[in-house]
C-alpha cells in the first residue's frame, strides 16, 4: 500500500530550513511506494487547520529553487501543544489518519522538538501506527547532542563576512573610533563567538567578543575598549543581544534607569553600549544591529550547511522507514574532522539548550579560544548558486 | 618629460570608489609618459602630511583586487579647506610641485568637490600649471548634473535585494506584522526610493515608502499602515533616516518628548516608528536599520556601477590630458537608455544637492512613481566576481 507523508516547519527562520524540507521530499520521491507528500503551512497550526499543499507534484527545478530560498517555504508558527488539551491531540491524529500519513516530519528548534516529543508520546500511549520525526534547525546552534545545527553555518558565514566588510568601513578614517555589532542569540553566544572567523592576517575585528554565558560588566567593558584604543585606532566589538549583568538583567533593557539610557523598548544591547562609550570615552562610536539579516541572507548561505541540512532531511526519511519514531537526526564530528549523521531521541533535545563551554571563552571574558575557532572553521564553507534578475536577488515565489 | 600623478579619496565609503581609483590608475598606466602614480592616504589631510603610497608599482592582479574591495583603499577624511588659510594652500601646492604632480584627482561627493573647486581656483589665480579633477561618488545619488552617481547602483542592489530577503522572513507567520526598514540618506531619498525595486509579481514589499523630500506625518503614517493591514497581513515599510515633520524636525530625534520616545541619541527614525506602531496599533512590529551595510557590502556590488565608476576614473585622466581642470566626469543617460560620459565644471556640483523630484513621488507621499522605477532599473544590473576563503568573504589587504 502506498504511503503519504506530512512535513511542517516551525520556529524562527534559517537559510537552511528549506534545504531540510527538500531533503525529506527528495528522499520520499526516491521511494517506490510514496503516494502524496503534503506540506503543512504554518507548522502544527496548519495541521489543525488542514492547511496543506501537495509537494509531490513539484518539479525537480521547483524543489531546487525552494532549497536555496530564504526563510520557510511552508511558513512557521510558534505554538506549543498543551498536554491537558486531549481534543487537540485527537484532532491532529484524526487528520493524520484521514490523510493516510505514515510519518509526520517537523523541522525546528528545541521548542519544535517539544511538539515532536508530545506527539510521539501520544501516539505510543494510544498505539497509533505513525512515525513522528524531528529535524533540527536554528541559527542559534543551541541544540544538544548534535555537533552543530543546520542554519548555524550559514549564519556564521554571514556574520563573519559582514564583520569583514564592516572592518573595511571602519578602517577608513584616521581617528579613534569604536564600532559595536550586535548579534542574535539571547541565551547562547555561539553566533556571536563565530564573528571571530572574520579575523585574518590584517583584520583584527572583532577585537572584543562578549557572550551571554559570561556576566557582563560595563566597567570592564570600558576598560577593555580603553586598553584596545591604546594599541589601535579602530576597535570593533561583537556583542550578543543577550548579554546580562551579574544580577541576570539584560544590558539591552538599560544598564541604569531609563531616563539615562533611553526607553528599554528602544535600545538593544549594542545601542546601549554605543551610548555608554559615547558618554564615557568621548570617541566616535556607532552600533550596528545585524537583526533578521543574520537569518534570512540566503545569498550568503554556506554550501556545507545546506548540504548537511538536506542530508539530515534524507536521514529522517531513513529513520521513518526503519519504523523509528520520536527521533531526530544529528551531526557527529568524526576524529578526522569529517561529519557523519546519526540520530538521537528527541527527548534529549526538546526544551533543552546547549551553551558555549566556558573553557572556550578566555579568562578576561572578552574573547574566545582557538579551540572554539577550530570547532567553527568548517561550518561556513562553500557557496551556493545565486539567481539575480535585473540585478536584484530572486528566489522561489511564495506558496 | 615624464609626469607624476596624485589620487585621493574622501567622504563616506561606497563599494564603487575603489573602482574609480583603479580606473584612474589603469588609464595612467596606459600612458607612455607616466612616471609615478601616488595615492594619498586619508584624502587632502594625507596630502598635507605627505602620507603617500606608490600605486604605479602595483601588479594588475593587485589593482583588480582593490577594484572589487569595500570602502576606500586609500582611506578617507572629512576636511574642508579654509579659504582664509593661505598657508594651507601654499603647503599643498609646494608638495604638488615637489612630487612633480601633473594632476591631482579627488574622488568624493559634494563636500569633496568643494576641495576640488577651491584648489582649482587657487591654481588658476596663481598661474600654477596643474590640473585638479574631481571624480564623483556617493551612495546618496545627490550630486547635480550627473544622471546618477557611482556607488549608488551598488547600494540600490543591496537595499532592494535585502528587502526581498526580509520579505521572506516577514512572510512566515500567519499573523499581522509590520516591519520597518531604515535606509540611509539624510536629505535626499534616492536610496530609500530604490527599495521599490524589491517588488515583483509576488513581493509587494516595500508596501510604503517615505522620503525626506516630503514632510512626514505620524498620523498619516498610522493611517497608511492601518489601511494596508486591512488588505494584507504583512506590511513592510521603507523609511529614510532623514524624514522630518512639517516643522523640519527629524523624526529620528523623537516625535514627542524624550521621556515618551526614548533618548534621541538612541533612536533612529525606524526605531521611533517601531515604537509608534507598537503603542498605537498593537501589532507585532520590528525595525531594521541597514546602517553601514548599505555602503560596504561589496559582495553585492552592481557590475554596471563598478564599470561606470572605473570608466569615469579613466575619463578623468582623459580630461587631464586635454589640460582641463576644475572638471568632474558625469554620466549622461541617452535617449536609447544607454549611458555616455561627459564632464561638467565642478562649480556646478560642489556644495549643492540633488533631491528626488516631487513628480516622482505619489500624491499620498507614501510611494514612488513608475517614472522613478524606470530611472532606477538599469543601475543595479550585473554581478562581480567574489572571493571566499574558507567560506568567508575575502578582499584586498589593508595598505
What's the short version?
The structure is a homodimer of 399-residue chains. By secondary structure, chain A is α/β, with parallel strands linked by helices.
List the helices and strands and how they pair.
2 copies of one chain form a homodimer.
Chain A lengths: L2 E7 L7 H13 L4 E7 L2 H6 L3 E3 L5 H8 L18 H13 L2 E8 L1 H16 L5 E6 L15 H20 L5 E7 L6 H5 L13 E3 L7 H14 L2 E7 L17 H4 L7 H13 L2 E6 L3 H4 L6 H19 L5 E7 L5 E7 L24 H7 L11 E2 L2 E2 L6
Parallel strand pairs in A: 1-2, 1-4, 4-5, 6-8, 6-9, 7-8
Antiparallel strand pairs in A: 2-3, 10-11, 12-13
Helix pairs in contact in A: 1-3, 1-12
Order of helices and strands of chain A: EHEHEHHEHEHEHEHEHHEHHEEHEE
The counted number of beta strands of chain A is: 13
Rg of chain A, Cα atoms, Å: 22 Å
Q: Can you list the strand order of the major beta sheet of chain A? A: 3-2-1-4-5
The helix count of chain A comes to 13
N-to-C CA distance of chain A:
30 Å
The low-confidence runs of chain A, each spanning 5 or more residues with pLDDT under 50, are 254-265
| Oligomeric state | homodimer
Q: Approximately what portion of the residues of chain A adopt beta-strand conformation?
A: 15-25%
Structural class of chain A: alpha/beta
Report what the structure shows.
Two copies of one chain form a homodimer. Chain A has 13 helices and 13 strands. In chain A, helix 1 runs antiparallel to helix 3 (60-67) and helix 1 (17-29) packs across helix 12 (303-321). In chain A, the strands form four sheets. Chain A has a five-stranded mixed sheet with strand order 3-2-1-4-5, with helices on both faces. Chain A has a four-stranded parallel sheet with strand order 7-8-6-9, sandwiched between helices. In chain A, strands 10-11 form a two-stranded antiparallel sheet. Mean pLDDT of chain A is 95; it is low at 254-265. Chain A has 399 residues and is of the alpha/beta class. Helix content of chain A is 36%, strand content 18%. The two termini of chain A are 30 Å apart.
Amino acid at each position: 500500500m502506498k504511503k503519504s507523508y506530512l512535513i511542517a516547519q516551525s520556529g524562527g527562520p534559517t537559510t537552511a530550513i528549506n534545504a531540510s524540507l527538500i531533503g525529506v521530499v527528495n528522499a520520499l520521491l526516491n521511494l517506490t511506494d510514496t503516494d502524496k507528500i503534503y506540506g503543512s503551512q504554518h507548522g502544527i497550526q496548519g495541521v489543525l487547520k488542514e492547511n496543506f499543499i501537495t509537494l509531490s507534484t513539484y518539479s525537480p527545478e521547483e524543489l531546487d529553487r525552494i532549497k536555496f530560498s530564504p526563510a520557510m517555504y511552508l511558513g512557521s508558527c510558534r505554538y506549543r501543544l498543551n498536554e491537558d488539551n486531549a481534543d487537540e491531540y485527537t484532532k491532529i491524529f484524526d487528520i493524520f489518519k484521514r490523510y493516510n500519513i505514515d510519518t509526520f516530519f517537523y523541522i525546528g528548534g528545541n521548542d519544535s522538538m517539544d511538539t515532536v516529543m508530545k506527539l510521539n508520546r501520544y501516539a505510543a500511549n494510544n498505539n497509533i501506527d505513525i512515525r513522528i520525526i524531528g529535524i533540527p534547525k536554528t541559527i542559534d546552534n543551541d541544540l544538544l547532542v548534535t555537533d552543530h545545527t543546520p542554519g548555524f553555518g550559514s549564519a556564521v558565514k554571514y556574520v563573519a563576512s559582514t564583520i569583514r566588510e564592516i572592518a573595511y568601513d571602519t578602517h577608513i578614517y584616521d581617528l579613534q573610533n569604536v564600532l559595536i555589532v550586535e548579534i542574535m542569540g539571547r541565551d547562547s553566544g555561539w553566533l556571536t563567538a563565530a564573528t571571530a572567523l572574520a579575523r585574518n592576517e590584517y583584520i583584527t575585528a572583532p577585537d572584543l567578543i562578549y557572550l551571554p554565558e559570561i556576566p557582563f560588566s560595563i566597567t570592564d567593558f570600558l576598560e577593555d575598549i580603553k586598553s584596545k584604543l591604546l594599541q589601535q585606532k579602530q576597535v570593533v566589538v561583537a556583542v550578543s543581544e543577550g548579554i546580562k549583568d551579574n544580577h541576570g538583567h539584560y544590558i539591552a533593557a538599560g544598564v541604569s534607569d531609563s531616563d539615562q539610557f533611553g526607553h528599554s523598548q528602544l535600545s538593544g544591547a549594542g545601542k546601549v553600549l554605543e551610548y555608554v562609550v559615547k558618554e564615557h570615552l568621548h570617541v566616535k562610536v556607532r552600533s550596528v544591529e545585524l537583526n533578521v539579516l543574520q537569518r534570512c541572507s540566503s545569498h550568503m548561505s554556506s554550501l556545507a550547511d545546506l548540504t548537511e541540512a538536506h542530508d539530515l532531511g534524507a536521514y529522517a526519511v531513513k529513520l521513518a522507514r526503519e519504523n523509528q519514531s520520536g527521533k531526530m537526526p544529528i551531526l557527529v564530528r568524526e576524529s578526522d574532522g569529517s561529519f557523519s549523521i546519526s540520530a538521537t531521541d528527541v527527548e534529549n533535545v526538546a526544551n533543552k539548550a546547549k551553551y558555549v563551554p566556558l573553557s572556550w571563552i578566555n579568562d578576561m571574558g572578552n574573547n574566545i579560544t582557538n579551540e572554539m575557532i577550530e570547532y567553527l572553521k568548517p561550518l561556513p564553507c562553500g557557496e551556493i548558486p545565486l539567481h539575480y534578475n535585473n540585478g536584484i536577488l530572486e528566489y522561489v515565489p511564495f506558496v
